[in-house]
TrEMBL record:
This is 2-oxoisovalerate dehydrogenase subunit alpha. It catalyses: N(6)-[(R)-lipoyl]-L-lysyl-[protein] + 3-methyl-2-oxobutanoate + H(+) = N(6)-[(R)-S(8)-2-methylpropanoyldihydrolipoyl]-L-lysyl-[protein] + CO2. Signal peptide: none annotated. The lineage of its organism: Bacteria, Bacillati, Mycoplasmatota, Mollicutes, Entomoplasmatales. Its cofactor is thiamine diphosphate. CDD domains: TPP_E1_PDC_ADC_BCADC.
Length: 407
């Protein structure tokens, strides 16, 4: 008998607190007992990540004598100081919701490239993150005691890396749980299924996340898969799976803890699809209006109303845990922290030209040696190279898009 669909692929999304501040009645007591310290720490990391991304992108803008962005056709002019950047604005509840559970020095985070909020939460220093995006690979040198792999650029391969670490953890009889994440587009890669199948077969202590932010570069999820959900792909390899509201911190935190307990009790991996939204463009040099339809922009406005930071802040205020005075103090502290991180990263962004070539292979190939000699005849450091690349300044493209205020 041909099987055309699973008996009951669950399309519903698990949710504890929605954008209207309505609470799932089955979890009312869960919220009442929730540790306020965890909530306040989560909000701090969420807002820190959002502001860092905004300020980091503004580094790219050409400014006039008064410090105001120079506009071309209504868009800021880009200098190219930031080599590239792929932000997680809009996805903070998802990333902080799982990363806040990572035990430093015990668990592992194996990220993709759009995980800024998760990196910060797991202990990746902001100055190192910015240093990396300014073009210095030393930014990928994670401090000792923090188990985070460097930014993973080849899409999907991090799932395989995570499965390997999880196998080692099981072999050593360690206590660590491995966290790894992928975007909706990455589920089309072979490593996605290979790693999950391997992890399920060996009952590895790993939690797989899919950050379904509705877009894979310029491809909407509706054109990326025929599966009703991404979560159900776990069923094919025998992994328990769930869809969760990725803009609800409580939901992500809760299901992550359930998955962690499964891993600790030697019950194998779990797959969590967090349904969220990519508020920014794909990257610092991408512009939404090149591929968004009018309907896409209308849909985006609805997603902005579900902003995870607004939802969290409203909940904190409603429960007398937050007020405007605390908000002002937090913004000031975050701004100071980010400015200091930017200053450090800029001071430590230049690298010798040699390093661009020397670490490609164990030994330089004749062609690379020729290219290295030519480059060194023009430039001493990569900072000089970047300066030359900035002439002439290229026209900017808005990373944040056209956004109405969420009401």
């Amino acid at each position: 008998m041909w099987i055309e669909k699973f008996d009951n692929p669950q399309k519903e999304v698990f949710q504890i607190l929605n954008e209207k501040q309505e609470v799932n009645p089955d979890y009312a007591d869960y919220l009442k007992k929730f540790d306020a310290k965890i909530l306040l720490q989560a909000y701090q990391w969420m807002t820190l990540s959002r502001l860092q991304e905004k300020m980091q992108l503004e580094m790219n803008y050409a400014k006039d004598d008064k410090g105001q962005p120079i506009l071309i056709n209504g868009q800021p002019k880009v200098m190219g100081k930031v080599i590239n950047f792929l932000g997680s604005s809009g996805q903070e509840a998802t990333e902080v919701g799982y990363a806040i559970n990572i035990r430093k020095g015990i668990d592992w985070l194996v990220p993709a490239y759009r995980n800024n909020a998760a990196w910060i939460t797991a202990g990746y220093p902001i100055e190192k993150i910015i240093q990396y995006w300014l073009g210095n690979e030393m930014g990928s040198q994670i401090p000792k005691g923090i188990n985070i792999l460097p930014v993973n650029i080849p899409i999907g391969t991090q799932y395989s890396h995570a499965a390997g670490i999880a196998l080692a953890e099981k072999y050593k009889k360690g206590k660590g749980v491995i966290f790894t994440t992928i975007g909706d587009g990455g589920t089309s890669e072979g490593e996605f299924f290979e790693a999950m199948n391997f992890a399920a077969l060996h009952k590895l202590p790993i939690v797989f996340f899919i950050e379904n932010n509705q877009w894979s570069l310029d491809t909407p999820t509706t054109k990326a898969t025929m599966s009703p959900t991404f979560a159900q792909k776990g069923t094919a390899v025998g992994i328990p799976n769930i869809r969760v509201d990725g803009n609800d911190f409580f939901s992500v935190y809760h299901v992550t803890n359930t998955a962690i307990e499964r891993a600790k009790n030697h019950q194998g991996p779990s797959l969590i699809e967090a349904v969220t939204y990519r508020q920014l463009s794909h990257s610092a040099f991408d512009i939404k209006k090149d591929y968004f339809t009018e309907e896409d922009f209308k849909n985006e406005q609805e997603w902005f109303k579900k902003d995870p930071i607004i939802r969290m802040k409203t909940y904190l205020e409603k429960n007398k845990l937050w007020d405007e005075a605390k908000e002002k103090e937090l913004v000031s502290a975050n701004t100071k922290k980010i400015n200091e991180a930017i200053a450090w990263a800029q001071k430590n962004s230049a690298v010798p030209i040699d390093e661009i070539f020397d670490y490609t292979y164990e030994k330089l190939t004749p062609k690379l040696a020729e290219q290295k000699a030519e480059a060194k005849s023009y430039f001493t450091t990569s900072d000089n190279l970047i300066s030359e690349m900035q002439k002439p300044t290229i026209e900017a493209k808005s990373y944040f898009g056209d956004r109405e205020e969420a009401k």
